[in-house]
C-alpha cells in the first residue's frame, strides 16, 4: 500500500499557480498529525489554513500523518480538495 500522496504544485515546480496549495501527506501508524506549513502570509492566514487541513484530515479519519503544505494563496475549497486528493493517493485510492 502506498503511504505517500501529493497534490498541487510544489515551489520547485515552475508550473506553480497563484491561489493554489501544495500538499504532501505521508500516512504513519503513530505520532498524531505533524503539520508543517510554509506560506507567505502565514501570520495572517496560517491558523485558518491549518484549521482547514486538520478538519479535512479529521473528516477522512486520518489520525496519524506527516503533512507538508506550501500555500500560494489558496482558498478554503482548494485546500480541502488538495488534502483529500493527497490522502486518497496515499491510501492507494487514486494514482
TrEMBL record:
GO terms for cellular component: cytoplasm. GO terms for molecular function: lyase activity. Coiled coil: none annotated. InterPro entries: Mal_deCO2ase/Cit_lyase_ACP. Keywords: Cytoplasm, Lyase, Phosphoprotein. It is found in: Cytoplasm. This is Citrate lyase acyl carrier protein. It comes from Entomospira culicis.
Amino acid at each position: 500500500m502506498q503511504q505517500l500522496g501529493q497534490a498541487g504544485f510544489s515551489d520547485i515546480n515552475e508550473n506553480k499557480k497563484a491561489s493554489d496549495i501544495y500538499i504532501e501527506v505521508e500516512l504513519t501508524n503513530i505520532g498524531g498529525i505533524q503539520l508543517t506549513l510554509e506560506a507567505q502570509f502565514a501570520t495572517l492566514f496560517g491558523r485558518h489554513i491549518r484549521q482547514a487541513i486538520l478538519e479535512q484530515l479529521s473528516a477522512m479519519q486520518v489520525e496519524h500523518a506527516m503533512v507538508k503544505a506550501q500555500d500560494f494563496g489558496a482558498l478554503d475549497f482548494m485546500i480541502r480538495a488538495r488534502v483529500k486528493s493527497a490522502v486518497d493517493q496515499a491510501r492507494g485510492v487514486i494514482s
